[in-house]
Amino acid sequence: MQRGRGALVVIDVQNGFITDSSRAVVPSIVDLVRRWSGPTVFTRYHNYPGSPYERLVGWTAMQGPPETDLVDELTPHARYAPVVDKRTYSLFTDEGRALVAARGWTELAFCGIATDSCVLKSAVDAFELGITPWVVTDACASDYSPDAHAAGLLCLRVMIGAGQLVTTARLLG
């Protein structure tokens, strides 16, 4: 990723998405955020009564604090960075699209939770919008299971290209 052309996007590292499957990635994400020298954006997912997630999947979590709060370790970093609140899988809400366009970013590096849903959807949306996506594989996890994380990475390899999946060391190197 070329410096000055993009941002690090930290997807949904919120209390409600921290499980046995995702907990171990939080220190890696915090380390990446600390070491990243460019702009950073955070997203926060908010579910709502009557949402498709509730109606079609039967999932009613993430409707308010403390579930929707960013994890404590990231709160100081998000204080001075844009935070995009969303009700969909993707960063690319109206607010997210406007932010990316206003900053002129042509590349985005994604990390966070969950590889198999919100990270995947945001990276694919970036790809389809002509923005070069990078997915930081060792700074992503699924809140569902390690197998779901692996499935998300497999889909990303097919959908945005294997070369777009990088490690923290490669991204920062």
Q: What can you see in these coordinates?
A:
There is one protein chain. With 173 residues, the chain is α/β, with parallel strands linked by helices. It has seven helices and six strands, in the order βαβααβαβαβαβα. The protein has a six-stranded parallel sheet with strand order 3-2-1-4-5-6. Helix 5 packs parallel to helix 6. The longest helix is centred in the C-terminal third of the chain and has 15 residues, at 146-160.
TL;DR of this structure?
By secondary structure, this protein is α/β, with parallel strands linked by helices. Helix content is 37%, strand content 20%. 36% of the residues are buried.
Instruction: Report the strand count.
Output: 6
- Helix-strand pattern, N to C? EHEHHEHEHEHEH
The helicity comes to 25-40%
The unreliable regions are none
Largest sheet: 6 strands, parallel
Mean pLDDT across all residues, rounded?
Answer: 96
* Annotation field: number of helices: 7
Strand order of the largest sheet: 3-2-1-4-5-6
**What structural category characterises the helix and strand content?**
alpha/beta
Shape: globular
How much strand? 15-25%
Distance between the termini: 10 Å
Looking at the chains present, what oligomeric state does this protein adopt? single chain
Radius of gyration using CA atoms only: 15 Å
